[in-house]
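Design job #97: recover the sequence.
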């Protein structure tokens, strides 16, 4: 079941901005996933492929934090337990995927591709959907 339309509706209705403290933490985990995983030499390869400077890469990848927040904001403040560590399992994973997309295709993914991947990460993390936690079929 595609819940993207519901996420967007709830995000617009809720309209809570991403807390500054959270955006700083998420930015750090996004960068960690992008540059540090899966092993040594990745940061150099990514910067060589990007070829526009490290600050520009950080700015470009942090643009994906807003769609992530829009996808998760409607449930973020709900008083329920988290099944894991969101920053490790979603934000860092998103950064790692962005790096793989850059290394594989020579550019960052489109907003539409990223939104699909973000939706899959969030659905898996919160076990949203009828088919179970690994039903998203996300692929690197």
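Job complete. Output follows.
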């Amino acid at each position: 079941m595609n819940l993207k339309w519901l996420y967007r509706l709830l995000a617009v209705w809720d309209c809570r901005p991403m807390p500054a403290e959270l955006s700083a933490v998420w930015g750090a985990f996004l960068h960690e996933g992008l540059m540090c995983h899966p092993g040594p030499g990745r940061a150099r390869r990514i910067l060589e492929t990007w070829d526009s400077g490290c600050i520009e890469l950080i700015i470009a990848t942090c643009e994906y934090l807003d769609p992530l927040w829009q996808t998760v904001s409607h449930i973020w403040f709900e008083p329920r337990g988290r099944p894991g560590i969101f920053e490790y399992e979603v934000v860092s994973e998103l950064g790692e995927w962005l790096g793989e997309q850059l290394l594989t295709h020579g550019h960052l993914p489109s907003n539409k591709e990223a939104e699909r991947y973000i939706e899959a990460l969030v659905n898996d993390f919160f076990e949203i959907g009828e088919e179970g936690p690994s039903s998203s079929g996300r692929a690197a």
